[in-house]
Hints:
This protein is mainly alpha-helical. The chain is 54% helix and 5% strand.
Amino acid sequence: MATIQGEQRDTILSIRRALRGRCPNCDRGRLFQTYLRQVDRCSACGEPWGELRADDAPPWLTILIVGHLVAPVALALVKYSRLPDWAISTLLVAASLALCLLVLPRAKALFLAAIWASRARSS
């Protein structure tokens, strides 16, 4: 838990709230305006979100997670499946794309909440 100037910010709680797409501060406002664009300010508590930047961390985490989920499935399909190669490739590309689209906004929310909770600011 980060504490500065008497205000406590619970990192785990803020990350849980952000993973649901809610404001890590109040849990009432939305964190994202669109798929990956964060709101400038929380509509409920007014916390500024537009100044925080996660940069390359969310894509890195997304690739890490999706790669670790898809690679064992790919190896198992190639070794044990009777599907043709084109079907395996199509299945793996579709699964990878779907997982990336699912994980990326949550990865960004995780990093935004962690940056906010630690009071780090972008320069």
